[in-house]
Amino acid sequence: MDNLNKDGSMMDALVLSNIADQIVSLDAQYVEQRNSKSKTVETSNLYMKWRRSLLQKKVQQSKLFARTNGDRRDDYFKIRSYLLSKKYIKEPKLDYEKEITSIRRNKSSGALSEKDAPLNAIARSVSNSFGKASTVASRRLSQPTPLKPQDTISLNTNLSNSYSNLNIVHEITTPTKLPSQTPSSPIPTPPPVPDMTPDYSFSGMHHIFGECKKGVTHARFGHGSKEILAFASRDLVVYLCLSVIDAPGVTFQLKGHMAEITDIAFSPSNSYLASTALDSTIRVWETKTGVCTKLLKDMGVCLALCFHPKSDANLFASDSRGNIKAISLRDGKVVKSTKASAMITCLTFEPKGGVLFTGDDKGHVQIFRVDKDGYTLTPSLRAPVLGGKPIPVTSIHFIYVRDPRSTPPLVPFLMINAKDNLIHLFTVKNTTPTTLALSPYREIPIINKKESIHSTFCPSLTFRSAPCLVSGAEDGGIYFFDARKKDDKPLNTLMGHGAPVVDVCWNFDESLLVSADTLGTVILWSRVKIEKKPPQ
Fold first, then answer.
1. Residues 6 or more apart in contact with residue 30 via CB below 8 angstroms
2. CA–CA distance from 13 to each of 8, 70, 227 (Å)?
């Protein structure tokens, strides 16, 4: 018994000492800012010496308590970290109108800012997002011949047909005029742009999640689901919520990754959630139980992943060496590995799974044809989409938009985010019965210089009338845009975050919008349902 008590006392002493070390480590991050007036190393060292000495006295007096369910230690670290960052990290407050005006000026002149001009901006921004391994890998990749911004990107296929029979070839054509600008095809008078403002009215915050100890990088609702939500944090945890409407809260904390989580994705049936991290592993979790059913090791530093839209067993992941790996979750093995011409940073499928759209770290979009086996990728083309600027693409989304002036009435749109203060929209059109062209639609200014911000379409609103989208920004705002409007003024703005909003996502019926920021706050916003009155 004496030995047990002795061992228990030694364990308590170790735990208390560990708490003191964590507090000292937190304070050490801000010691230079705290002693900025004296600007001497001796002052900083003296402060840390006395800080550690006082904490050790508290350890000896048992005034620091070990972690138990419901204690205040996690809250203490989170609140102290927040207060120290607010006090000593003096970042200028972003003014939306001023920033957007500056973005418009740079956009019209085509000039890059001093921070974006150097060619090493790729390595710097990718390193900030994905770590040193991705930077080293990006130097190994070949540099393709840049294409002219006015080039039209053509694919030998017909988008109105089924994607399962695509025959895509690498073909670049430079027409003198776009098809819609030829004299033989008169431009129809566009109908008046409908007022979408009422559809973006919100009743307020439905719930605020405060479990994350560090910033959130991704937030995802399940496919076709109003309830299932997951978000990944830099505290190496994936938070899974199975019910967010009646009783919102975190159901499972999925732990196991040993380095920062780079992406998460739900399977088509929402039975599984996949996550990948800088620890070179991919974990597959069962959503009903929160149990890790698959652990795939030695996968390389994966930056993005997504499931094939037709199968829970087909998972695609891109690594820092420029490979896109098609993985069978039945046996956990890589079935096919396709070498891309640059490091792929984001992935998205066309809804039927016949085409994979990707963005790379050089500011290009790469398109791959998916064979009928669901694994084999055939490279089709790679072309610049950011005006030749070598900026990594951080997010890519595909959607069909209803346009009564088009034949067929559903027009495919592609949306791209990059750290260039713009949201880029492209349309994919038929220039001939067998050829597609990826053409710039418009660019919307948004404050996005440092963070990897992910914008998203508004599917149900877009399907009804116009291409609409929502995006976070580095000033902490959430902005809603109607892409058909000529001005850049947002339809609505939600303010509630105190840090850059890096991800937004709708649930299935767009009754809830989730937003996440770099301090770890996740907010559910409840949208007002507009009941249309029947015509008199």
1. 84, 85, 87, 88
2. 9, 20, 44
User: How would you classify residue 183: left for phi > 0, otherwise alpha for psi between -120 and 50, otherwise beta?
Assistant: alpha
CA-closest candidate to residue 219, choices 15, 470, 26: 470
pLDDT of residue 303: 93
Q: Which helix (H) or strand (E) holds 366?
A: strand 364-370
**pLDDT tens-digit map of 73-112:** 555 666 777 777 767 665 555 666 666 677 666 666 554 4
SS3 of 453-512: the string is CECEECHHHHHHCCCEEEEECCCCEEEEEECCCCCCCCCEEEECCCCCEEEEEECCCCCE
Is the distance from CB of 461 to CB of 196 less than 8 angstroms?
yes
342-380 confidence digits (pLDDT tens): 899 999 998 888 889 999 999 999 888 899 888 999 888
Question: How many whole angstroms separate alpha carbon 272 and alpha carbon 476?
Answer: 31
Confidence of residue 433 (pLDDT cuts 50, 70, 90): very low
Phi, psi at 198, each rounded to 5° = -60, -30
How is residue 156 written in tokens? 């030998």
Instruction: Tell me the pLDDT of the chain averaged across its residues.
Output: 75
pLDDT at 469 over 60: yes
What is the helix (H) or strand (E) element at residue 282, kind and residue range?
Answer: strand 282-286
Sign of CA dihedral 127, 132, 133, 137: positive
The rounded distance, in Å, linking the Cα atoms of 51 and 45 is 10
The side-by-side arrangement of strands in the sheet containing 435-445 is 171-173, 152-155, 435-445, 422-432, 410-418, 393-402
pLDDT at 502 over 80: yes
Tokens of 251: 């159901």
Q: List 432's β-bridge partners, or say none.
A: 435
Q: How far apart are CA 357 and CA 304, in angstroms?
A: 12
Q: For 128, which DSSP code?
A: H
**Token pair for 386:** 């950011």
DSSP conformational letter for 266 = E
- Distance (Å, rounded) from C-alpha 170 to C-alpha 148? 15
Burial environment of residue 307 by CB neighbours within 10 A (0 to 12, 13 to 18, 19 or more): buried
